């Protein structure tokens, strides 16, 4: 499949400048609407940066091949100027300035990660450049009063709220006792705040509120408390290493808990490291291919999964899916604004209310997506093969939740 990238170096940027007298207003060049993006193509975020770029590119090609973007009686195609932010927030900020001041970009796509999005957002805001971002979930992004930032993904505080709602549902609607352990990074602390809010909302009680050690290599003390106090649900956020440590020590200590929910616990990775020891863990995700959402560009999640796999040779993680959704939001906003004026397009973005294959998108006053819930999948194993099964929210689940988790003595 054809993938259109403009990876702009200094030399190619000069060449592009010389090729058209309108490049200083690169919001539109001929029949192309130019979007700008600083993405991590190298550095520690390069894997997910590539997922982000692939998601953007798949959507650009799909939209362009299906009639493009219609504004003012004319048809336009999307194109993207990419720079490599090298997984560095300072570099990302510099590149955002370059895209706006030198390349004349009037419409931005977000980078990968909350940290890099935080670095870019003040620059797009200061220059009144609308940005639709797909990979910055930190709650603090949506409490700054930004008017030009719009995020298609659910904020970090919502990651595990659905687990508390599910535990209450399984407890006959009655409050539950919650144990939790969190890394001290900004993302995990945002997740923790969501659990605190969910506990208040449901009348539930937090009986363990622990900090994970900086190295994320030992949570035995927390698990000893869990064995002693017998909570209804244990929630953990410590990125991938924290999830792997949790599964290892829960199995070693034979900790029985009716429900276990974590962030960053992709089932295939857990299964590769721990096999059936990871079974029944609940994993928070922004998207799952079994969701019933659909749109005319990608169909449903199963179809998107196939199209992405055909194009790039691997199954799309949610980072790719949400990135593709960002382009659908841009198309919708341009067409509803029926204008290329960035202020009119910004106003159209603010009133977005649409469904995509990735989920519903409707922006709150802070720019966060208020319409799409997080989902939970449960690790389920048959023999030595484990897979992700969508189990929550219940109304969109494709599989039934196994609850309570069988005791270790019964496995």
Describe this structure in words.
Helix 3 packs parallel to helix 4 and helix 11 crosses helix 12 (342-350). The protein is elongated. It folds into 2 domains: 6-153 and 289-362, Response regulator (Rossmann fold, 3-Layer(aba) Sandwich); 158-285 and 374-410, Rossmann fold (3-Layer(aba) Sandwich), CATH 3.40.50. The protein contains 12 helices and 19 strands. The chain has a 7-stranded mixed β-sheet with strand order 10-9-11-12-13-18-19, sandwiched between helices. Strands 1, 2, 3, 4 and 5 form a 5-stranded mixed β-sheet that branches. A 3-stranded parallel β-sheet has the order 6-7-8. By secondary structure, the protein is an alpha/beta fold. The termini are far apart. It has helices at 10-19, 46-65, 89-102, 114-126, 161-170, 186-202, 220-229, 239-253, 267-274, 301-312, 318-337, 342-350; strands at residues 6-7, 28-29, 32-39, 69-71, 74-84, 108-109, 131-133, 149-151, 177-182, 205-211, 233-237, 260-262, 282-285, 294-295, 299-300, 353-356, 359-362, 375-382, 385-392.
Task: Tell me roughly what share of residues is in helical segments.
Answer: 25-40%
CATH-level-4 superfamily name of the largest domain: Response regulator
The biggest sheet, with number of strands, parallel, antiparallel or mixed sense and barrel status, is: 7 strands, mixed
The end-to-end distance, rounded to whole angstroms, is 46 Å
Count of the separate structural domains: 2
CATH class label of the largest domain: Alpha Beta
Spatial extent as radius of gyration: 22 Å
The share of residues in extended strands comes to 15-25%
Adjacency order of strands in the biggest sheet: 10-9-11-12-13-18-19
Class per helix and strand makeup: alpha/beta
Could you say what the CATH architecture of the largest domain is? 3-Layer(aba) Sandwich
| CATH topology (fold) name of the largest domain | Rossmann fold
Uncertain spans, ≥5 residues at pLDDT below 50?
Answer: 1-26
Number of helices: 12
Oligomer: single chain
Average pLDDT, rounded to a whole number, is 91
Number of strands: 19
What is the global morphology?
elongated
């Amino acid at each position: 499949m054809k993938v259109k990238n403009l990876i702009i170096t200094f030399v190619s940027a000069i060449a592009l400048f010389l090729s058209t007298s309108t490049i200083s207003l690169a919001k539109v060049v001929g029949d192309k609407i130019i979007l700008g993006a600083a993405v991590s193509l190298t550095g520690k975020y390069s894997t997910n940066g590539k997922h982000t770029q692939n998601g953007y590119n798949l959507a650009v090609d799909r939209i362009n091949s299906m009639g493009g973007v219609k504004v003012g009686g004319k048809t336009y195609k999307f194109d993207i100027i990419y720079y490599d932010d090298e997984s560095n927030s300072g570099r990302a900020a510099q590149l955002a300035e370059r895209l706006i001041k030198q390349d004349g970009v009037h419409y931005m796509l977000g980078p990968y990660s909350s940290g890099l999005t935080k670095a870019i957002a003040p620059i797009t805001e200061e220059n009144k450049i609308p940005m639709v971002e797909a990979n910055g979930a930190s709650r603090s992004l949506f409490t700054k009063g930004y008017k030009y930032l719009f995020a298609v993904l659910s904020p970090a505080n919502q990651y595990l709220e659905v687990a508390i709602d599910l535990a209450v549902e399984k407890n006959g609607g009655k409050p539950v006792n919650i144990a939790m352990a969190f890394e001290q990074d900004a993302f995990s602390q945002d997740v923790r705040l969501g659990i605190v809010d969910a506990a208040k909302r449901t009348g539930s009680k937090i009986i363990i509120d622990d900090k994970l050690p900086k190295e994320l290599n030992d949570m035995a003390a927390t698990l000893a408390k869990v064995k002693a106090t017998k909570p209804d649900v244990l929630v953990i956020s410590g990125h991938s290493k924290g999830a792997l440590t949790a599964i290892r020590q829960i199995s070693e200590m034979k900790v029985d808990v009716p429900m276990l929910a974590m962030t960053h616990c992709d089932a295939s990775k857990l299964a590769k490291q721990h096999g059936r020891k990871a079974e029944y863990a609940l994993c928070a995700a922004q998207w799952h291919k079994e969701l019933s959402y659909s749109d005319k560009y990608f169909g449903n999640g199963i179809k998107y999964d196939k199209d992405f796999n055909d194009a790039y040779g691997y199954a799309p993680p949610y980072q790719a899916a949400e990135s593709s959704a960002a382009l659908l939001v841009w198309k919708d906003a341009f067409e509803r604004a029926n204008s290329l004026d960035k202020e009119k397009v910004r106003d159209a973005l603010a009133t977005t209310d649409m469904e995509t294959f990735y989920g519903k998108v409707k922006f709150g006053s802070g720019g966060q997506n208020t319409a799409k819930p997080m989902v939970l999948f449960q690790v389920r194993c048959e023999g030595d093969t484990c897979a992700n099964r969508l189990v929550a929210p219940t109304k969109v689940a494709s599989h039934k939740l196994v609850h309570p988790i069988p005791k270790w003595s019964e496995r």
